[in-house]
Fold:
Amino acid sequence: MSKFICNKLAGIYWPKQPLDDISIRIKLKCREGISALPKFEDYKDKSNEENLNKLDNNIIEEHDFRWQNKVFSNWEYQKYSDVYNCNSETELKYHDRLKQPYNYECKKVFSYIHEDYYLPLPVTSEKKVGKAIVSIGDCFNRLNLEDIGSDGDISSSMKHLLRSEENMSSYEERWIAMHIVLDSSEYNEDSQLLFKEEHILVSLYHNVTYNYLIVTPNVNDIEFNAYCVENQPEIEYGVEIEFGEENSAELEELLNNLLKKWEKQQKKLLSFVMPPLGRKNYFVTFEIISAMDFDMDNLYIEFHIKISDDLQCNGDLRGRTHISKHLTTEKYEWKYGHTVELELECATGIEPVPIKIYLEAISVDWWGRHRTEGYSYLPLSLEPGEHTRHLSCSRPEELDTVKANNRRFFVGGCHLIKDLDVLANPQLHNANFRYTETGSISVRWRTISQSRSPGAACFAPSPSTAGSSTALLSGAEAVLRQYRKAKATLAAATSSVPEHMHSKDG
Structure:
């Protein structure tokens, strides 16, 4: 018993050009083996020319398709040619197309486009809408409207608004599909269908919402990794996809920007300059790793950094991360990996005050409303080393629960904290609102300090004097070489003078 090996895997592509520009090519050939060898019975009663034509048919067949290009099979042509077989609008459109003067040919390899609804679309996982409001009943429970009145006291416009909010929250992704199929059906002499048999060669699913394409099975090479047709082991095929010409100017601009950034970083690394006497440098790399257990999805983190007056800072003191979506419904976690680099300088005789870092978690819903999900505060000390911290977050809420839930549901809430220093100094807390515990944010930072040691201060040349010192040494070596050369010349000139003349001169 032979072992079955499946070499078909799906591929995912993010096309930059419209899918109307892609070209799909299917290559078919007979599988090489004993079963593919010519049989004597097939050639004995035919002429040489017919035998040569039959041998030529064993070469690779190529079938080209465009995106959402409808190609008819033999049985489709027979079906849609008769208007009495057409029931839906799509079938009537195919009938009108076949009646046009353009000559449509029946193909052994044909296509099912999105309008044919040949196979179901990919199933996407349910999005997390939020723990706060998932239905109209939950909305009433959270707003505490049971005691206000019955459903009859609520206007129809209010019901319609709540119903639209509920429907839009269950947002589904949009897909467009296309299938390329091999027709292995049996027909009689009049091209009438006797036995219908089809084999899917490749399926393409385009996610219009996020603009990516799933190709199953993936592109392959028919010579080295040919696919076998199910129930047709004597046929092999390959899949090729061309996405059209991509704009190289955008890639070139991206590479140039990366090169400039790399050169700038290398320049900083190569020009290692010690701080001046009496000064001390700190290098801080602060990273926002992830967030967990917040109510809403589509989350991003804003950061605000405040430094004391005795520190000089070079770096971004305010910014935000990208918008992240949670991956699974079992664990509500959002990944970031956002890095902030700070270069600080202060005097050596003082102990710097910790840096104040304020973090705000913000969510974005389907209507474009930005909701504050929680605040957190971190006093970052400039102690050298690597540190990791999990910061708990809290969200300010109005004391009136009904008003707070109404405001948060309809307009996304409001900014109750006017000054972020209230997070560092709780005594400044306003009594008009309270805090509610929400999620947490994980951060990590690394700190390096750099200063001159007193003993090495007189020996370490500054960058401005390094060049002059090198030039001075080179000049001294040149003078010594000239002196040695002159001394050797004098010794050679006086070697031929008689010895008694030396004594007389003396």
